[in-house]
């Protein structure tokens, strides 16, 4: 008898006018005849509607579903489809859910993680509703508090990166707003958040990169690299390095 457990995808998502394939694989000897059903109504190959095309009916069957935002009934294609396989030895059935994906919901919370005179590092609490699709990016728009809508700057980050904005002006008030983006599109924008940047201060500590660890490549000199830190509103004039000889006492 047919065995439909080899069908791999039982949850499929699409949106707008994007067609999508539902695939049903029947392991059977002899080959099983496959039929498609939605809400107890069979989708027949000989009278396919504008929303369906059955590409095959034996062993492996693909049902091409074509949702529509403009045609009447174009969104009624979403729901739980039943794939039914039958041969002379029996029948097997499996449900495949077709869900309508949407843009993400609103971002839950924005936190100011670290603030210097010219930079802000944000933490983003993602939306509760991702729209049935993974979040791909976070978008930000920002402007000086007194500027108009024509003076808005924008920035975006891939999900999971460090959410940082740089080159801000010290002692200046800014407005920030955020939204999440998935494959469907951009979700709603948050309300504007206000933050006044602190005054200029000493630069952050540089981060030293040791390409060779504690062992020098050279006999009489040692190469040190560092990541230039935030200058906190004033141009860095120079770097100072302190070093001393370590005496090996043999202990």
From TrEMBL:
<feature type="domain" description="Ig-like">
    <location>
        <begin position="2"/>
        <end position="102"/>
    </location>
</feature>
<dbReference type="Pfam" id="PF13927">
    <property type="entry name" value="Ig_3"/>
</dbReference>
<feature type="domain" description="Fibronectin type-III">
    <location>
        <begin position="103"/>
        <end position="200"/>
    </location>
</feature>
<dbReference type="InterPro" id="IPR036179">
    <property type="entry name" value="Ig-like_dom_sf"/>
</dbReference>
<dbReference type="InterPro" id="IPR036116">
    <property type="entry name" value="FN3_sf"/>
</dbReference>
<dbReference type="InterPro" id="IPR013783">
    <property type="entry name" value="Ig-like_fold"/>
</dbReference>
<dbReference type="InterPro" id="IPR003961">
    <property type="entry name" value="FN3_dom"/>
</dbReference>
<dbReference type="InterPro" id="IPR007110">
    <property type="entry name" value="Ig-like_dom"/>
</dbReference>
<dbReference type="Pfam" id="PF00041">
    <property type="entry name" value="fn3"/>
</dbReference>
<keyword id="KW-0393">Immunoglobulin domain</keyword>
<protein>
    <submittedName>
        <fullName>Fasciclin-2-like</fullName>
    </submittedName>
</protein>
């Amino acid at each position: 008898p047919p065995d439909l457990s080899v069908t791999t995808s039982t949850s499929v998502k699409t949106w707008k006018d994007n067609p999508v394939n539902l695939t049903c694989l029947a392991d059977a000897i002899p080959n099983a005849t496959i039929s498609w059903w939605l809400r107890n109504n069979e989708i027949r190959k000989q009278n396919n509607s504008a929303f369906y095309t059955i590409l095959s009916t034996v062993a492996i069957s693909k049902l091409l579903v074509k949702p529509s935002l403009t045609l009447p009934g174009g969104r009624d294609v979403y729901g739980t489809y039943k794939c039914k396989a039958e041969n002379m030895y029996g029948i097997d059935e499996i449900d495949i859910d077709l869900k309508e994906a949407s843009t993400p919901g609103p971002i839950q919370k924005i936190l100011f993680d670290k603030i210097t005179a010219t930079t802000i590092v944000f933490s983003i609490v993602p939306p509760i509703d991702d729209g049935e699709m993974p979040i791909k990016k976070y978008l930000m728009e920002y402007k000086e508090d007194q500027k108009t809508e024509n003076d808005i700057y924008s920035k975006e980050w891939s999900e999971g990166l460090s959410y940082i904005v740089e080159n801000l002006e010290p002692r200046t008030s800014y407005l920030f707003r955020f939204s999440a983006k998935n494959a469907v599109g951009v979700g709603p924008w948050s309300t504007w958040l206000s933050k006044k940047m602190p005054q200029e201060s000493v630069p952050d500590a540089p981060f030293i990169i040791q390409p060779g660890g504690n062992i020098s490549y050279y006999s009489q000199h040692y190469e040190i690299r560092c990541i230039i830190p935030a200058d906190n509103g004033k141009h860095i004039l120079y770097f100072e390095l302190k070093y001393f000889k370590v005496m090996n006492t043999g202990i």
